Amino acid sequence: MALLEVKNLTVEFGSEDKPFRAVDSVSYSVDRGEVLGIVGESGSGKSVSSLAIMGLIDFPGRVTADSLTFDGQDLLKMPAKKRRAITGKDIAMIFQDPMSALNPCFTVEAQIMEALKVHEGGNKKQRRERTLDLLNQVGIPDPKSRMTAYPHQLSGGMSQRIVIAMAIACQPRLLIADEPTTALDVTIQAQIIDLLLKLQDDSDMGLLLITHDLALVSEAANRIQVMYAGQLFESGPADSIFAAPRHPYTQALLEALPERSTGNDRLSTIPGVVPGQYDRPKGCLLAPRCRYANDHCIQDRPEVTDFNGRDVRCFYPLNDQGQPTGQTTGQTAGETV
Amino acid sequence: MTSQNTPSTAPQNAVDDAMDTVGKPPSPFIETWNYFRKNRGAYVGLIVIAIILFVAAFATFIAPYDPILQDRTAFLKPPIWMEGADPRYILGTDAVGRDILSRLIHGAQLSVSIGVFVVIISMVTGIILGITAGYFRGWIEVGIMRLMDTMLALPSLIMAMAIVAILGPGLENAMLAIAIVQLPHYVRLSRASVVTELNKEYVIASQIAGAGHMRQMFINILPNCMAPLIVQGTLGISSAILDAAALGFLGLGAQPPLPEWGTMLAEAREFVGSAWWVITFPGLCILVTVLAFNLMGDGLRDALDPKMKR
Amino acid sequence: MLGFLLRRLGDVIPTFFGVTILVFLMIHLIPSDPIQMMAGERGVDPARYAELQKEFGFDKPLVVQYFNYLGGVLQGDLGKSFVTKRPVIEEFTTLFPATIELSVMGILFAIIIGLPLGVIAAINRGKWLDHLTMSLSLTGYSMPIFWWALLLIMFFSTTLGWTPVSGRLSVFYYIEPTTGFMLIDTLLSGEKGAFTSALSHLILPTIALGTIPMAVIARMTRSSMLEVLGEEYIRVARAKGLTPMRVIMVHALRNALIPVITVIGLQVGVLFAGAILTETIFSWPGIGKWIVEALNRRDYPTIQGGILMIAFVVMGVNLFVDLMYGVINPRIRHKR
Q1: Mean pLDDT of B91-116
Q2: Which GO terms describe its molecular function (chain A) (predicted)?
């Protein structure tokens, strides 16, 4: 049994009769020791889905799912108190911006020890020792002097290490990392990812790595899940997705990677933005931006289907040559120019 | 795939098509009005203000009696739903037999004009001082801003009392005093806006195009600083009405027999144990009027503040 | 921290001189001659007029007069009252404790009621409880407190007979002032019932005076809380599995308090303005009532001195609040 099982998770905001679906029937699972990468542009719902797992979606937002189980227990059906005992202990989360993730009014030590106190108890001395251990573990130089520092006295990379220390304080079995490196300098990014992967490997945690950076997941993740406008677009093992993307969106994302650009042409981009609350297309959500879109795509919305052993949400999944299948070339909007 | 490297126009068209349902952005005025209207409190405030303005404008026609006419046969008559009331006087009479309703209606005229005049005087002077300070910088700015800081060190009512102490009690002097007291708010707001606007490209462009100081200050920059000033002005009306009433209550503002609400309360004070109506109604009028302007000011701030949108 | 302190002092000093200049000029801006004014209807003969002019120093140039005045102020000499002939500073120090007592009670009332109201409104954002508390606080904010005080008297004193109408203490007791604070003095005196009497005299003035600051604090707390509750570190705190209570009371409130403290500091000015009205209505023997009486009697040295002292107190409290701000906000404490 997988550590985390998500079946048809939906998160809605706004009024009951005209809701906005930030996450639309998304399913995935994470096993212990596994790294699942969730990839998407901003606005794709990847962060919202992880907040839903943590139980951090508030009043106007509504979370529904066929099942949302952690270690066999349904998180949505258990009482709030029991769920709080799991969040922060067995499931922990690292947020995007370390500079705003630490409470400016409390010292580093106080913020790490708080998590320990709530979930593990023990006396103050034990907690302080454990905090020192953790700071060592996440590679903070001179941890003793950092214990009493305030967040504004730390650099971004240092803050993110503290945030990680805080998250792994109670030895979680699942760690959700939401864009853990986006707000950091490029030079620090690799260090933080290496640290995360090392911690994951050492303790056999499940790691849910949420990012917009395909290059990053390509190195780190076992499996990849591509999301767009709240929907799952494609999922499968990391290497096979990179070898042969089945969804036009994945293909476009890969082409936009600097590492993949060949020759001296300009770097490829995907025109437009992810549709928001007010401009959702009628048909396939990607249709306005898809280079293969035809009338069928503009009129109807595709469902997730199995294509060569991969989940793909497209009427015309791509073949190994990167060409849409089941579609005559003359029909594609892109070719009519 | 030739379309890959040169951005193709087809997807762009598709985006345009998809966006078509959203429509054109509304004009700034309509947009502000739409935000404002969604705020129920502000809407109520606006309606109440409209009623008060109407009553104030047509006070002489609406009021059943002359506000200073004394009826020696009806001293301290209670409102008509009470026992012992005089049916001619709906809200009763005061200690010298004047119709309270008529006095309240004429009081509305006084309060509204106090609020509006004070804010106009104060705002115009404040904007001129503030823009001058922000535009010319240097010792002019230091001088003006230091004076304003000093004025802000004193609580507004105490400052107004001091000014009235110099000028002598009376409605005009009280209004002038309140206008002076409110000055620092407008000066600070307009200076701060000017300082931020001054570095923007459009001002520099206009300067290069040869715009003079006056044109820069009042035609180019001022319209872009108006939003916070409008909000402050609306809230200024309510605090002017409140301060004027307080001065009237202390005997430093409007003098009897003027039917100013604060002055009416001062005259009614001694009847605190015997005639609740002479105390309750004037105060209620002050509260409702001030509340209405505050509601509208709040609504305007929310509607005009881009940070609050969405 | 030291730099911060010095910078704040640097801001305060020009304001200090500004206030002394304004207050000094006050007496010279009066359209009529102050000596004629003092003499009243009877007038004054020319010989006595010259004598008085010399006594008050009105014969010297304005600048010299100002520095004489400033010198006096710095030594604690605010002149003598035209009416009582007693030094203004002496009258001020006698009456000030009564105003402090009332103001402290007022601000305590405002904080004790206002803070929870703001927090409750924020965590129930958009629900009826939020609308209710915010409607109440906007009403409080718009309240003409002289009317509010009269309503309170009408209801609680005249109709229900629960509280006394005016003064600081029932006439049955005589307490020798030691600290000037009636609550403390009555406790020290050991006289039975005196403390309860002092307390009951305080209730209505406290509510009247505290209402506007209460409304301001509630509104500020709400908006500050809402801002803080949207911060990432609140999410992080919740992701730790803390109870909602702990997240709100420890993580959110501590940060939300920072701007609220400033607002509380700014209420000192509001309190003094309110004290003038409240003391007048409740015959509370403090500086508010004293200044109003001086205004009615045209006792200019008292008006000048009173306004100056109030300005000093307001400036002092604001400075203190800024320092408090440094204590509660680590970001300022460590700034050099």
Answers
A1: 91
A2: ATP binding; ATP hydrolysis activity
